[in-house]
Amino acid sequence: MASTPPVCDFGWPAVDATLRGTDGKSHSLFDQAGPNGLVIAFICNHCPYVKAVIQRIVRDASDLKKEGIGFVAVNSNDANAYPDDSFDKMKLFAAENRFTFPYLHDEDQTVARAYGAACTPDFFGFNNDLTLQYRGRLDASRKEAGPPGLRRDLYEAMKQVARTGDGPVEQITSIGCSIKWKETA
Question: Over the stretch 40-73, which tens digit does the pLDDT of each residue have?
């Protein structure tokens, strides 16, 4: 089922956590920040919204690095209920799509809950003080990749953050599959 996150809560402070990455190492979210900011992307392996734009996500992560913006992806889905989101499948997904950034497993879902992640993909863009400046879409793609030449909303917003420290006032929320939460007893 499609889900959309709330609008950007400007100035909200990022929360650090250390999670296991598909490279076999543990990574702190804050250690992924560049000198001008950080994007934390909640994604997963099986969501058609993510699959449609995964190459654009990889492209934008690489291009944002040149702007001094770090990038990290987090998978918080319940892998027991959704085996395509298992850690082993995450490793394959990262390798097949040539991730140049850490892909982290939020097995107990505490990071997704701390951030209020709502869907995959859900992008959180922080400035160099690690306060939230962007919570919007990658571009206008949905379950199918949009045509070439779409405005790169995340990329353009984070370039502005890199230059000014502030995100754009106008932001269009992302849309995607809802986070697959674990059953609680």
Answer: 999 999 999 999 999 999 999 999 999 999 999 9
In degrees to the nearest 10, what's the CA dihedral of 38, 108, 182, 99?
Answer: 40
The strand pair at 69-75 and 119-120 is best described as unpaired
**Peptide bond before residue 121 is cis, with ω within 30 degrees of 0:** yes
Q: Could you give the 3-state DSSP secondary structure of residue 91?
A: helix
| Cα–Cα separations (whole angstroms), residue 171 to 84, 88, 127 | 31, 35, 16
Give the CA distances from residue 44 to residues 47, 77, 119, 126, in Å, rounded to whole numbers and listed in that order: 6, 7, 10, 21
Q: Give pTM, 2 decimals.
A: 0.95
| CA–CA dist 117, 129 (Å, integer) | 20
- CA torsion sign for 152, 56, 27, 36 is negative
